[in-house]
Write a structure and sequence with these properties.
- The structure is a single chain.
- The chain has 282 residues and is α/β, with parallel strands linked by helices.
- It is 39% helix and 18% strand.
- The chain is built from twelve helices and nine strands.
- The strands form two sheets. A seven-stranded mixed beta sheet has the order 4-3-2-5-6-9-7, with helices on both faces. Strands 1-8 form a two-stranded antiparallel ribbon.
- The longest helix is centred in the C-terminal third of the chain and has 13 residues, at 218-230.
- It is elongated, with a radius of gyration of 21 Å.
- It binds S-adenosylmethionine.
- Residues 24-29, 53-56, 59-60, 74-77, 100-102, 124, 126, 129 line the site of S-adenosylmethionine.
């Protein structure tokens, strides 16, 4: 079945009384060149197992199923229950679990289905919840080697910015803590049905075996980073102190110990410097 053909998509969906739900980020891929490239990236280092979030009608799932031994998809929309067995009928290595990926126990799913196998994640993520899904997958320390995901271009640029650049934000630091991110390619809005209002990019996050820097308290570090980048035009002292947890004097001393000026902004610091200032505050 040609799942990128708008005629086929309309036929399959209307037969099942399905209409697109914007609130679930339902923009389905119709550009045939995108899914094979995403699947190649997900199954390129001997990965045998792939988790896909949000299969939709299964256009990316089919490309994953051709390359991996096992594919487990997590789909929130129960209306796709009768659709997926039809569109993926030719594959016997795909399992679809219906539920909210933010609520399911993904560690348990991996343990039960994929024990011992190399697992990657591949998804055309729903836009309304992109960063929470990426952070949930990284923070849970799942045995995952990489994430190949489609996100809004603006989010991709932020996530894959160089830490210590004007484009960097709290999410850049958080993602770089757990992984090495890169933009693979851009995808125009016309590649989707219905077309969204923005262009997209496919990014790949290669998960690090160990975090990129050592911090005394992970949760505290991410709170510190969020407040440091929270008010971008302010100096780090002003933005972090206004969050209330640390005093200006304490932050000034930590900056001085790290050899940094008290007028520095968060976007000028490297991962190592951010970690050093935070550890100095403890
Ligand atoms: N993979 C398909 C494609 O590329 O054409 C569909 C991608 S569409 C951008 C996002 C998919 O994620 C939809 O199928 C939507 O129903 C599903 N979805 C939205 N929120 C979800 C959640 N919290 N958990 C699991 N799936 C979700």
């Amino acid at each position: 079945m040609q799942l990128t053909d708008p005629k086929v998509i309309k036929e399959v969906l209307s037969k099942n009384g399905f209409s697109f739900k914007k609130s679930l980020g339902q923009n389905f891929l119709i550009n045939p060149s995108v899914c094979p490239k995403m699947a190649e990236s997900a199954v390129c280092n001997g990965e045998e197992a792939v988790i896909e979030i949000g299969p939709g009608i299964g256009v990316l799932t089919a490309e994953l199923a051709k390359r991996a031994k096992n594919v487990v998809c997590i789909e929130i929309d129960e209306r796709l229950r009768p659709v997926l067995p039809e569109t993926l009928a030719e594959f016997n290595n795909v399992e679809v679990i219906f539920g909210d990926c933010m609520k399911l126990d993904i560690a348990k799913i991996i343990e039960e289905r994929f024990k011992g196998k190399k697992v990657s994640v591949c998804a055309n993520l729903p836009y309304y919840i992109t960063s929470p899904i990426i952070m949930m997958l990284l923070e849970s320390r799942l045995p995952i080697t990489s994430l190949t995901v489609m996100v809004q271009k603006e989010a991709a640029d932020r996530i894959c910015a160089k830490v210590s650049s004007r484009e960097a934000g709290a999410v850049t630091v958080a993602v770089n803590y757990y992984s090495s991110p890169e933009v693979l390619f851009n995808v125009s809005r016309g590649s989707f049905m219905p077309p969204p209002n923005v262009d997209s990019s496919v990014i790949r996050l290669a998960v690090r075996p160990e975090p990129s820097v050592k911090v005394d308290d992970e949760k505290g570090f991410f709170n510190f980073v969020r407040s440091a980048f929270g008010q971008r035009r302010k100096t780090l002292i002003n933005s972090v102190s206004s969050a209330g947890k640390w005093t200006k004097d304490g932050i000034r001393a930590a900056l001085e110990d790290a050899g940094l000026s008290e007028t520095v902004r968060a976007e000028a610091l490297t991962m190592e410097q951010l970690a050093e200032v935070f550890n100095g505050l403890q």
